[in-house]
Design brief:
single chain; mainly alpha
């Protein structure tokens, strides 16, 4: 196999993996914890956010970006223009809709929650904190889900067009 197809396949694999993670949060995790009372919800989200910050997740989160950019580099000028456009568009969609939304949207909300001592907050403050976090966090995660899925789909189309 050649580097253009190897990097494209690795980009597909890692982008699809992250799309699955984002989808799981959108489809099951956040609706599930959304049924909890304010303190339970905030504790659950705080705990999950702390646990997910581990080396394996960091690799999984960064890998699509590196592999998408690498795939753009190796596929430039060696694949048909239509194929390259799908790869380039997938890269842009993933970086802007999954990576940057995480950095600029979800992480600041995670940090706000992480810095909160939930045990010392009264009922009104818990409700206020949940209101600040829940809907925006879920909206950002939906953007990440749709963006990573779209990027994954575009990469699959690029692969299909490559071997048509």
């Amino acid at each position: 196999m050649k580097l253009p197809i190897i990097t494209l396949l690795m980009a597909i694999l890692t982008t699809g993996f992250m799309a699955g993670i984002f989808f799981t949060w959108t489809n099951a995790v956040t609706p599930g914890i959304g049924k909890l009372n304010d303190l339970e919800y905030l504790k659950a989200l705080q705990s999950m956010n702390r646990v997910i910050l581990n080396p394996l997740f960091h690799i999984a989160f960064i890998a699509p970006i590196l592999l998408l950019i690498t795939s753009v580099f190796f596929n430039y000028a060696v694949t048909p223009v239509a194929v390259f456009r799908f790869i380039l568009t997938a890269t842009f969609i993933y970086i802007s809709g999954a990576f940057l939304v995480t950095i600029l949207g979800n992480i600041p909300l995670n940090n706000l929650l992480d810095q909160s001592n939930l045990e010392t907050l009264n009922v009104e403050d818990l409700q206020k904190l949940r209101t600040q976090i829940e809907v925006p966090w879920n909206q950002f995660n939906l953007i990440r889900t749709l963006s990573s899925f779209t990027a994954f789909l575009f990469l699959l189309i690029a692969t299909f067009l490559s071997y048509k």
